[in-house]
Amino acid sequence: MLTKIAFITGITGQDGSYLAEFLLGKNYLVFGLIRRSSSINTARIDHLYENPNLILRYGDLSDGLSLQNILNEIAAKNPGRVEVYNLGAMSHVKVSFEMSEYTSDIDGTGTLRLLNAIRASGLQDRTRFYQASTSELYGKVAEVPQTETTPFYPRSPYGVAKLYAHWITKNYREAYGMFASTGILFNHESPRRGPTFVTRKITIALGNILRGKQTRLVLGNLDAKRDWGHAKDYVEGMWRILQHNVPDDFVLSTNEFHSVREFVEKAFSLKGIIIQWRGEGLTEVGYDSHSGRELIFVSAKYYRPTEVDELLGNSEKARGTLNWYPQTSFDQLVQEMVDADCP
């Protein structure tokens, strides 16, 4: 028997696909928002298509009417509680500098449209709303590690747009009494991560190098440090946030960080390639210590206009209040991604 309904924006993304799997496993009726595209963009959820409890609807966070129409349909289907997970976003930090207005509209104003659609559809008093906030809110960090009370200083159009979404969610919670929570999630990866994100870029390149399809991997800031977890663990955290008895804000993180350089070294070592380094800055090169072959290069074009050097979370609040703990170690994460992308 179905007990709950969920609506996921961004269902075709990494997090959305894992969350859909998780909720369907808990017998939810899951509505998913998909954007119209001339190419097929549903690969991450294709394996779920035959599930009768998955309902996909076209719409966009730029189109408030499409959001309201879907929520009206949900309201008519179910007199009980509805969970709304806003995971849709233009989520690439570097690209946000090139598409700043679009990022602002989707990541910032899009959240406002969704909150207003919840109210307009009459679901305000029976909806639990989750906003996907991000560690990029901290940007130029004021303290290490970062907690729910650390001041924000975003360093990209993506971070600034997400800051608006974060605060409008809190504002609607306080102004209208909505059950509106946020999860400030630190970096979370998986084999479903988009190929332009640095972790997946590394493992795809490694696979291509091993197959002879690629000769080099070009990266930006090798010493940027991130708190990397597994997306599968983090979507359970999202769900736990909405099961809590009061709306609140929670950091989800592994509480440890690793550099891009470390990720490269770990991934390549799993395939028997020990990377050593020479040079510095833009002239630094990583080479195979056995063959001497130069494999890793640095380019200024992969640096952000404003860099974020260190992001390290402190998720003690979520661990104590929600009993949420990440289950996947850094080594396990890298191993899974390498296994998926390399022969």
DSSP, total strands: 15
Could you state the order of secondary-structure elements as H and E? EHEEHEHHEHEEHEEEHEEHEEEHH
CATH 2nd-level architecture of the domain at 5-190 and 228-256 and 310-328: 3-Layer(aba) Sandwich
Largest sheet: 7 strands, parallel
What is the terminal separation in angstroms? 42 Å
Please tally the helical runs, counting DSSP H or I stretches of 4 or more residues.
Answer: 10
Percent strand: 15-25%
Structural class: alpha/beta
CATH topology label of the domain at 5-190 and 228-256 and 310-328: Rossmann fold
**CATH superfamily membership of the domain at 5-190 and 228-256 and 310-328, which one?**
NAD(P)-binding Rossmann-like Domain
Strand order of the largest sheet: 3-2-1-4-5-6-11
Rg from Cα: 20 Å
Low-confidence stretches: none
Give the averaged pLDDT, no decimals: 95
Explain this structure:
The chain is an alpha/beta fold and 343 residues long. The chain has a domain of 234 residues: NAD(P)-binding Rossmann-like Domain (Rossmann fold, 3-Layer(aba) Sandwich). It has 10 helices and 15 strands. Strands 3-2-1-4-5-6-11 form a 7-stranded parallel β-sheet, sandwiched between helices. The protein has a 4-stranded mixed β-sheet with strand order 8-15-14-13. β1, α1 and β2 form a beta-alpha-beta unit. The protein is globular and about 65 Å long.
Write a compact overview of the structure shown:
This protein has 343 residues and is α/β, with parallel strands linked by helices. It has 10 helices and 15 strands.
Helix-strand layout with pairing:
Layout: E1 5-9, H1 14-25, E2 29-34, E3 54-58, H2 64-77, E4 82-86, H3 93-98, H4 100-120, E5 127-134, H5 157-176, E6 179-185, E7 188-189, H6 198-211, E8 217-219, E9 225-226, E10 229-230, H7 231-243, E11 249-252, E12 258-259, H8 260-269, E13 275-278, E14 285-288, E15 294-298, H9 316-322, H10 330-341
Parallel strand pairs: 1-2, 1-4, 2-3, 4-5, 5-6, 6-11, 7-10, 8-15
Antiparallel strand pairs: 9-12, 13-14, 14-15
Helix pairs in contact: 1-7, 2-4, 4-5, 6-8, 6-10
